[in-house]
Amino acid sequence: MGELLYSAGQVQTAIMTMADAIAAKHAGILRPIVLVAILKGGAYPGMCLMRELAARSIPVRVDFLWLSSYADDHSTGKVKWHGGPQTSLKGETVLLVDDLVDTGLTLAEAHRICSAAEPASLEVCVIVEKQDVKRHPSAEELRVEYIGLRVPNVFIVGGLCMDFNEHLRSHPDIVIVNKPALRALPKVDLL
To answer: 102 an active-site residue?
Structure first.
């Protein structure tokens, strides 16, 4: 499919390492952390983090924020807010989880939405950070507290979170893909 960057095992190790750091920072917390996974890419890492935090005696509840900003292999420059969160974040400790940060556009919008809900604290966690990518102006001040893996500025899929037009998200490894080969995938109509 493409050049292997990180195996599924390395992705899982990165998630466990981030869970260790989050658990250390929030040790003894009584009220559950609200883990807000950004759909769709943040769903798998969010659920893995929830499991790992629970194993470390950190209480967690989950919510979702559904945003989209990609078409094919590039950002559209606009974020569409489809819905969420479904519960109040006011006064809560919130952990925003996504698959990837590159320009930061989607994460900046998610951060803005969650901040407007007046949480007690808001941290950001991503599985992958693309290096050497110019941040969108709205994301220049965005701080990502927990980063699992770093990749060069190439187009990647897999890791059970990153896709191309709804395809290849289920691939367990993170791989660099050949863009021309992706064009042969069937079109998925979004509603």
So the answer is: yes
